[in-house]
Amino acid sequence: MAFEKLYFNSRVVSKDMMYISKSFYSNCLIEAIKAKIRHPIKVKIKYIPARLNEVFCPHLMWHDGEYTYDFWACGHLKPYQILWHKGTIRQSEYDYYDKCIETLKKWKERGR
Q1: Residue at 4 is within a domain
Q2: Long-range contact set of residues 51-58: C-beta below 8 Å, sequence gap at least 24
Q3: For the chain, what is the domain count?
């Protein structure tokens, strides 16, 4: 799979991102915990607070020292879907989490 431009709500989030799994049912917490169990020393879990997240629920990402990963669902989720939804695991550049937090803070300041 090649890296591609990813548009989220018509905004380019990252040009260096790819999907590394087929779609399956889970959530970001479960996938982050599974990654941490597989590689307890190497994997660090990163938290995006609900107040910054576009869907108003907390989101977790994890990185392994080389890339950042997350479990992502296309589109907006209904409240009951937050705990269990269909999505894919994305792999992005290592500093994607920092860029994501920075962008979300800017959107929050502007009132989106």
Answers
A1: no
A2: 51/108, 52/101, 52/104, 52/105, 52/108, 53/104, 54/8, 54/9, 54/104, 55/82, 57/82
A3: 1
* Rg from Cα positions in the chain: 14
H/E element holding 31? helix 28-38
More confident position, 103 or 87: 87
- What pLDDT band is residue 55 in, cutting at 50, 70 and 90? low
Look up the domain containing 30 and give its range: 15-110
Length of the chain: 112
CA distance 67 to 86: 22
Does a structural domain hold residue 23? yes
Q: Which two tokens stand for residue 39?
A: 């590689």
Distance CA 45, CA 48 (A): 10
Q: Is the pLDDT of residue 35 over 70?
A: yes
Q: Residue 99: which of 9, 3, 29, 13 has the closest Cα? A: 13
Contacts of 66 (CB under 8 A, 6+ apart): 94
